[in-house]
Specification:
Blueprint: E1 10-15, H1 21-29, E2 34-40, H2 44-53, H3 62-67, E3 72-75, H4 82-91, E4 95-98, H5 106-118, E5 123-125, H6 133-144, E6 150-160, H7 174-177, H8 181-184, H9 187-197, E7 200-208, E8 219-226, E9 231-237, E10 239-251, E11 254-260, E12 269-273, H10 277-282, H11 307-310, H12 320-333, H13 341-360, E13 364-365, H14 385-392
Parallel strand pairs: 1-2, 1-3, 3-4, 4-5, 6-9
Antiparallel strand pairs: 6-10, 7-8, 7-13, 8-9, 10-11, 11-12
This protein binds nicotinamide-adenine-dinucleotide.
Nicotinamide-adenine-dinucleotide binds at residues 15-21, 40-43, 46, 76-79, 81, 85, 99-100, 126, 128.
Pfam families: GFO_IDH_MocA, GFO_IDH_MocA_C3
Domain Gfo/Idh/MocA-like oxidoreductase N-terminal: 10-115
Domain GFO/IDH/MocA-like oxidoreductase: 136-257
Length: 396
């Protein structure tokens, strides 16, 4: 069944009834124009309990769900199953909202892109941090140049996961997770970074396994160059007790920053304009601006200092509800939703390049990541485990 532009109501389903599926179910059941038709999980008792909690029906298979007639299906299964599950739903003609990471390799991204192109439905990806009001403002103002030209970026995902987090047998392994925290955790900030900064060109990275019982990294650090000429750093860690998710963009007009952990509100964003030349002179600082100028480039007036504050609108936290409400509205209006699979490919390419650069100890360009690149099919490049261990170090 294809997406019904102009229809009154949307019929939706959920495949995978674990932790994050609850956020999908609550967003759908809280929407006045959505019917949660049914749910599916390979663990049938789990699907039944989930269906009862959310006033829906547990189906025994995806086929039964699609036969019941659904326009949109959320896929909230583990990353390694995303390609098979999402491709089969697209083949049945449904639109799909696929949890992050969309896939665990660029090769699978291309399988999904082909399934998307052949389907009556469309494939969208959950990156809820693009959809809070702060990111919407930031993206719009950066695109129009109202916040100046980005020059330097800092992107940090500094989280804490103790050894016990890796007790479930699928966690901490390439086969179970397809990658480490650069793929599984940092991908949210990396996606938002690219959403704000535009296309990236090269990455030079190092990764290390310092403390956790995992097959991949627990820390990664990268230097990124952007097509615009800007540069940035990205740091990912699971060893950071004071948790922080931060993106900072220094532009010719000021510093834009968001500082949160698992989701932001408007209050987590700040804009610090370049110092006023007169005030800076009184404080004995050199703002690096021409005397009496107060401009951030030819023809850019000082009133740009107010662009951030002036753009404030309704505060929308960056949660699943923000994206799902937008998606439902887009589909019912027959509009394309912004977070398409294609729009997330640069993010997966950046993740791929971070692994390739760290394990091969060389700079990787986005244009290097063709189908014959060793990291196109696997984020460990198909390297023997002992060489990955040698490159990353060993946990005690
Ligand atoms: N966007 C976010 O902020 C966010 C947060 C957490 C997790 N996630 C993502 O959501 C996905 C699920 O994560 P989770 O923490 O909910 O995992 P989970 O292990 O809690 O739940 C996964 C569920 O999928 C079921 N399942 C597995 N394979 C299946 C299949 N082939 N068909 C049907 N059901 C299947 C499992 O039985 C389980 O109930 C992952 O991709 C994860 O990265 C996203």
């Amino acid at each position: 069944m294809s997406t019904p532009g102009g229809a009154d109501r949307l019929r939706v389903g959920i495949v995978g009834c674990g932790s994050i599926a609850r956020a999908h179910a609550l967003s759908y059941t809280g929407h006045p124009r959505v019917d949660l038709v049914g749910v599916v999980d390979i663990d049938q008792p789990r699907a039944e309990a989930f269906a009862e909690t959310h006033g829906s029906t547990a189906f025994a298979s995806r086929q039964e769900l699609t036969d019941a007639g659904v326009d949109l299906v959320s896929v909230a299964t583990p990353p390694g199953s995303h390609t098979e599950v999402a491709a089969s739903l697209l083949e049945a003609g449904c639109s799909v909202l696929l949890e992050k990471p969309p896939a665990t390799a660029l090769a699978d991204m291309d399988v999904l892109a082909a399934a998307d192109a052949a389907s009556a439905g469309s494939l969208y990806v959950v990156f809820q941090h693009r959809h809070g009001s702060g990111a919407r403002r930031a993206s719009r103002l950066l695109q129009t140049g109202a916040l100046g030209t980005p020059q330097v970026a800092v992107c940090e995902t500094l989280w804490y996961r103790p050894d016990s987090y890796f007790l479930p047998e699928w966690r901490g392994t390439w086969s179970g997770e397809g990658g480490g925290p650069t793929l599984g955790h940092a991908i949210h900030q990396l996606d938002l970074l690219l959403h704000l900064m535009g296309p990236w060109e090269t990455v030079t990275a190092r990764a290390a396994r310092i403390a956790r019982p995992v097959e991949f990294e627990d820390v990664s650090l990268g230097l990124v160059t952007f097509a615009s000429g800007a540069v940035g750093t990205v740091t990912t860690s699971l060893l950071s007790p004071r948790e922080l998710s931060r993106i900072r963009v220094d532009t010719t007009s000021g510093t834009l920053e968001v500082d949160h952990v698992y989701g932001y509100r408007d209050a987590d964003w700040s804009w610090t304009p370049v110092p006023d030349p007169d005030a800076a002179a009184r404080l004995g600082r050199d703002p690096g601006l021409p005397a009496g100028g107060g401009t951030d480039g030819p023809g850019t007036p000082l009133t740009d200092r107010d662009a951030w504050a002036a753009s404030a609108d309704q505060d929308r936290p960056s949660n699943h509800r923000a994206q799902i409400e937008q998606l439902v509205d887009d589909l019912l209006a027959g509009r394309e939703h912004q977070t398409t699979l294609a729009s997330t490919r640069p993010t997966m390419e950046l993740v791929t390049a971070l692994y390739a650069s760290a394990l091969e100890r060389q700079t990787v360009a986005r244009t290097d990541l063709t189908e014959d690149h060793p990291y196109y099919s696997r984020l460990d490049g198909g390297r023997p485990a002992e060489t990955v261990t040698a490159r990353l170090g060993t946990h005690p």
